[in-house]
Amino acid sequence: MKVFFNYLIATSALIAGFSSCSNDDDLTGKGGNPTPNGKATTFTLSIAQPKTYAVDMNATADENKMTSVDVFIFNDSDVLEKRERLASSDFSSSTDNEYTANRTIATTVGAKKIYVGVNLSDELARDVASRGLTAIYQVSSANDLMNPANGFAMFSKVASNPTFVEETDATAATANKVSATVSRLLAKVAVEKGAGLQYNVLGGTVSDLQFSLSNITKLYYMLPSASTFSPINTLADFYKENSYKAVNANGTAIKTANVSYALENASAQSLEGYSTYASIRAKFLPSKVVKLAIAGDGASGLVSETAPVNPQTFYVVSNAGVKYYFIDQTDAAAYDATINGITPTMSTYQDGYCFYKAYLNPAHNYNIFRNNLYKVNITAINGLGQSGDNIDNPGHEISKPTNITVDIVVEPWAENTQDSEIL
């Protein structure tokens, strides 16, 4: 099973006034009913985006927009005192990267721990309030955290720890202001053709490169901690995208590129079936096709068949390390049974598609982190891919592929680019 650790990249700063923050490992973030205590006071909230984020060439308008802000106020015993939601209309822009709330938020005096969620659905915001921050959350897909109506979900990187004072206190102007940092809960992936992409494929040609993501986890934490190893996933806790999109041309701007999204997926070890990867498929057109000399007679020998003009379903049978391409399924099966007996090798390439894997972020144990952009540059295709997007050895260490070469780079969002040769 895969054990997750938590790693965060900050993308925007939410300034609710105070500046002290913590990332306490003993933080429990218990949910529960509001339990206000102490004298009443208020604090102010503003949202600041760093300059580098404000001009982020990797972010679209949808990825940047803010529709709502949920402020979660916990006491110093990690019990929720209050959740308050602010709309985007509650803020005005003070600079090109800072937004200040038009109203204050009521609370009580004393030490607090405050977390901020941006663009959370109503259901998720209620769950955080009732279940707390250490609960394991689950989605049906990454789409749940990038709903067009809500925007991309973001959450605090660490707790903010102010000590609020009464409004009449001489220090209230500074004490009753809070700073928090949020990041998008998703990672972003783009695949493009590398400059000078090499096609080193014997026996045919490849075309129509497409990609999707596979082995995407459904489980996550709202507030990861650098020392926490969870949640624990089973194979059932992963899914794959249900459609492919065109691989981007070399140099395509990320704002206009085809991209996919996945939840953070990081662990202490890299295992097949548990690490997220880009599934790349292509159409393969064999240059030489064979058939049986006598149809259906596997012992009758092979003769040349007319090669197809366009990619179509074909079958591959291996004999002593040599691949033979068939158009006729019956001939392929008969030849396979004769040559390979009880250890058949026949593979079916439906509609001519072959598949390659590009595991993401090899420099960091194939872990992917929230708010990172992973760019996969395909630099070479070195052979025929698999007949399907399958996990061959779940639970085994990921081995470096010999049939694809990729280069991966991470930039903000944070981008990670890798060059990949595929086979």
Overview of this structure, please?
The two termini are 28 Å apart. The protein has two domains: 40-184, Immunoglobulin-like; 187-417, Immunoglobulin-like, CATH 2.60.40. The radius of gyration is 27 Å and the shape is elongated. The strands form ten sheets. Strands 2, 5, 6, 7, 8, 9, 11, 13, 15 and 16 form a ten-stranded antiparallel β-sheet that branches. β8 (91-95) and β9 form a beta hairpin. With 423 residues, the protein is mostly beta strands. It contains five helices and 34 strands. Its main location: other. Keywords: Fimbrium, Signal.
CATH architecture of the largest domain: Sandwich
Low-confidence stretches: 1-27, 49-54
Query: How large is the share of residues in beta strands?
Result: 35-45%
CATH topology of the largest domain: Immunoglobulin-like
Classify the oligomer: single chain
Radius of gyration: 27 Å
Total count of helical runs of at least 4 residues? 5
Taking the alpha carbons of the first and last residues, their distance comes to: 28 Å
CATH class of the largest domain: Mainly Beta
Give the total of beta strands: 34
Main sheet: strands, sense, barrel: 10 strands, antiparallel
Structural topology:
Elements: E1 2-3, E2 12-17, E3 21-22, E4 40-43, E5 46-48, H1 51-54, H2 61-64, E6 68-75, E7 80-87, E8 91-95, E9 98-101, E10 105-108, E11 110-118, H3 122-131, E12 137-138, E13 154-156, E14 159-160, E15 163-164, H4 172-175, E16 178-184, E17 186-199, E18 204-214, E19 216-217, E20 219-220, E21 232-233, E22 238-239, E23 245-246, E24 259-263, E25 277-286, E26 289-292, E27 302-305, E28 314-319, E29 322-326, H5 329-340, E30 347-349, E31 353-359, E32 373-381, E33 404-411, E34 414-422
Parallel strand pairs: 17-32, 32-34
Antiparallel strand pairs: 1-21, 2-5, 2-16, 3-14, 4-10, 5-9, 6-7, 6-11, 8-9, 11-13, 11-15, 12-20, 13-16, 17-24, 18-23, 18-25, 19-22, 25-31, 26-27, 28-29, 28-30, 32-33, 33-34
